[in-house]
Specification:
Chains A, B: This is T-box transcription factor TBX10 isoform X2. Chains A, B: It is found in: Nucleus. Chains A, B: Keywords: DNA-binding, Nucleus, Transcription, Transcription regulation. Chains A, B: Its main location: nucleus. Two copies of one chain form a homodimer. The first copy, chain A, contains four helices and 15 strands. In chain A, strands 1, 4, 7, 8, 12, 13 and 14 form a seven-stranded mixed β-sheet that branches. A three-stranded mixed β-sheet of chain A has the order 2-10-11, with no helix packed on it. The first copy, chain A, is an alpha+beta fold. The chains hardly touch. Chain A binds a DNA duplex through strand 2 and helix 3.
DNA sequence: TTCTTGTCACCTAGGTGTTAATAT
DNA sequence: ATATTAACACCTAGGTGACAAGAA
């Protein structure tokens, strides 16, 4: 699903945040290699601000080249640019999302793709469902962490060497309470099965190729320790 | 939910088995007390034959007292008795269902009621979904086991003392591919939320009392170590 | 004006007993 | 005859963006 992340990223990925908590789409998922089969690991994610700015939806009525004709919708006027609205709001409570299967053996984690589809984003500063709290209209970079559960008694001493972090730049996004770029909306509708109700193309054409994905297999992912991971998040 | 199990048991509980696997209803669930908060435990269930017999649906056309008029359905003729049809079929592959949260700390298990709602029963001898395999038209007794995960290196030596088993006789049942006793069918429809589509009573009456449960709080559960458990399965 | 909230129709995903057809 | 199977309508449970109303 790396291609899908990059397709969103080229448009400027947006993720909805709600009071109750909203899943990410695409889902962040990884294929893991190189773990000690018999050792225990915890897998988790967190989110770091990409900058210290607050954004707002900008209007470029004249930019007809970027936003041509037909696919222009209600928010098309907003979709052409993000403008800096000022300094970032106060940082949200820093939370971490443990993959619910944590802890588990290396063999278990490597058996198949690990999916963080239970992770939810919220803009409620007082959330007590354990969801990730983000500021709307701010940009974030998801991070993935692997923590080795050290069996030694004085494991605290080795905390620094017992985890590795990974960043996939194509998964960065802007948190929003409503989509700003109409092209993002259309791509979500086209690719998220739960949004199928808003598709309006000829149903027959979906039968053969359910998703109009770009077929650009660009290899631009970044990782702090690429040797440990195979593939990339979905 | 102990009252519900007993209500079914008084009629002769039946559980559907299918090729794909079918949940049990009621769900087996327990409230646990007395664990070591910091120790690891695995929780699991298995099923033992209650006897070495095969049953068949018997008909007592004359028993009008038991099966009176209105609630008689298509299988009413069958519902009045179970007849012994002969010796038990060859034993099914003996399987065990680990609660999916296993292993976990005692504190985690005791935090709330533990529910075995992921457990599924099948009659497919070649099942490879890890479901519990049972012979249709045979009677079974569910068992619940608590296994202490011994941190000692030679933990195998203490295997015998590191687990305890519990039996609740009100959860015994006959495995079937289709319900035989029409009263069981009606009680399932009345009490299982997923069968709500088959309820046909006055919708208004459900508003106040969603389930016509018996209010007989008979205390007849058996347990090999009652002191460890509080309450009973649902 | 711009952003946020709550409700909604419309989906996915999967658990029910029913029913008709098939198997034993 | 009796038991099993597979397709089905009808539910629960919850994930979508649209939309109208509200807030800043």
């Amino acid at each position: 699903m790396k291609a899908l992340w990059e397709e969103f990223n080229q448009l400027g990925t947006e993720m909805i945040v709600t009071k109750a908590g909203r899943r990410m789409f695409p889902t962040f998922q990884v294929k893991i290699l190189g773990m000690d089969t018999l050792a225990d690991y915890a897998l988790l994610m967190d989110f770091v601000p990409l900058d210290d700015k607050r954004y707002r939806s900008g209007g470029w009525p004249g930019d007809a080249a970027q936003t041509s004709s037909a696919e222009m919708g209600r928010y098309a006027f907003h979709s052409s640019a993000w403008l800096v609205a000022g300094k970032a709001d106060p940082a949200t409570p820093g939370r971490v999302h443990f993959h619910p299967d944590s802890p588990a053996k290396g063999a278990q984690w490597m058996r198949q793709i690990v999916s963080f589809d239970k992770l939810k984003l919220t803009n409620n500063l007082l959330d007590d469902n354990g969801h990730i709290i983000l500021n709307s209209m701010h940009r974030y970079q998801p991070r993935f962490h692997v923590v080795f559960v050290d069996p030694r008694k004085d494991s605290e001493r080795y905390a620094q060497e017992n985890f590795k972090s990974f960043v996939f730049t194509e998964t960065q996004f802007t948190a929003v309470t409503a989509y700003q770029n109409h092209r993002i909306t259309q791509l979500k509708i086209a690719s998220n099965p739960f949004a199928k109700g808003f598709r309006e193309s000829d149903p027959d054409s979906w039968t053969v190729s359910p998703r109009p994905l770009l077929s650009v297999p660009t290899q631009s992912r970044s990782s702090l320790s690429p040797c440990l991971l195979k593939g990339s998040p979905e």
